[in-house]
Amino acid sequence: MHDKLARLAKRRESLVAQAIVQRRILTQNVKPWLVPLTLADQGLSVLYFVKKHPVLIVGGVLLSAFRSNPLGKYLRQGLVTWLAIRNLL
To answer: One Pfam family of this protein, by short name (predicted)?
Structure first.
């Protein structure tokens, strides 16, 4: 019985040491991929956000288009005037 426990303890010790070596090797192999995978993950997060909130994206695009376009100035003034009149009535 004692022999069996000693063999199990030795086997466990060997397996733990082997796991430590495997973790170190895995860390060395994964390290070069850490930055590219992080960027890919962030890109996927942006895509999921766009998929869930398309109205925000369209609004942002329209807002930037209106700001860079002289017509946007008149549209903003018209919107402000319309909202003011609507609130007064």
So the answer is: YqjK
